[in-house]
Amino acid sequence: VSASAVAAIPRHNPVVSVTAASVETLQALGELRAIAENAVASAGLARLATFPAAMTTTTLALIVAGGSFGAGLLGALTGLGGGIIIVPMLTLLFGVDLRYAIGASLVSIIATSSGAAAAYVREGFTNVRVGIVLEVGTTIGALIGAALSGIIPPSALAVLFGIVLLFTAVRSFQPRADHELLHTPDIWSERLRLDSTFPTPQGMQPYSVRRAPAGFALMFIAGILSALLGIGSGIIKVLAMDQVMRLPFKVSTTTSNFMIGVTAAASAGVYLHQGKIVPSIAFPVTLGVLGGALLGARLLGTANPKRLRQLFTAVVLVMAFQMLYRGLTRTI
Amino acid sequence: MSAPERLSEHQVEQLIGRLLQIGVLLAGAVTLIGGLLLLREQGSAPPAFSVFHGQPGNLTSLIGILKGVREGRSDSIVQLGIVLLIATPIARVAFTLVAFAIQRDRTYVFITLLVLALLLYGLLFGKA
What we know:
By secondary structure, chain A is mostly helical. Chain A is about 70% helix and about 5% strand.
């Protein structure tokens, strides 16, 4: 794995220094443009690692499992979800066909989402009503996205993936501020009884839910993206629930996690029938990501989340420009 | 909300947590067994997933997969593990449906039924 994207990030990388400075978002965005120009220039040079002819299915399965383990670990430790770096890793580093990579990634997302949900659901954060209502939007979106994935050319998917990765990088270093809780239900919240309570150190806190239709629309888009790109779309889901519907942040993240597994299950079923799930690639990815995520959940609290988020952002940025480059030059 | 109702809700959450755990562990174990068998059989062959060519019937339909498993095909065993994994969140939704039905919550029985139908459609028919 010589031309590894991870190896291409030296310690003095500007991405790391930008995030380390924890400057205001606007200022950081300005610097991001400079990084973007650098990365685009280097993207042309960094080519896909070509494997020796002696490479066997076993060797590649082991390497893929190792890489997936790292992605799962990083995803769990940063809380940002490793799903988004699986597909670029498989296609850019290991030369896996984009469609097979997306299929394998979808399956691994179900594994990590369900594994994490097993722990979350008992803590009482997840708002099951909100989750199931929005699931209607994500599953319809996922089925449409899975159908569209057979029509949209891989190069266009790669460009879309690059844009989503860029958005992820930008979001990952925006500070999350806790907003005030609302206590007056709106008409949709009242009709669907979406308001609930969540555990805090001061006991159970009630909260109201806003703008369910707008949240629903965003979930439809999240479902399409999830199925098209093999990602959990957790960022959009959390954005919709936290910012638009005004759910408490912890409720948004756990409910998003619940929904990610269901959304991915909808499109993974279609992918299976489309012949996009290959056993020899899906099994090392799934087991690797699951193992990494389980270890990550154990290590949580011992690792430095800030530095890991910087590393994650850097990896996502490099992958974003690689995917854009490969998509635009139609070399994917 | 009355006390016994809250207790049952808590129990439902415990059950869902256990269900997810069992689903993931079972799916993971089947996938691992199939994967190891797969590598023992075809491990020394060159990797073949850099070009998209679809997959044969024993790997794409539920009936084909089950038939392959009965014939002892390692790649079908991996696919069975993956189907179990896909079934795990679907089972969770089905469980939620039961919980809403017990609470006689008609609106949510309907909404959950809709989600379940969409999910089963994707897994069983796969033509969106």
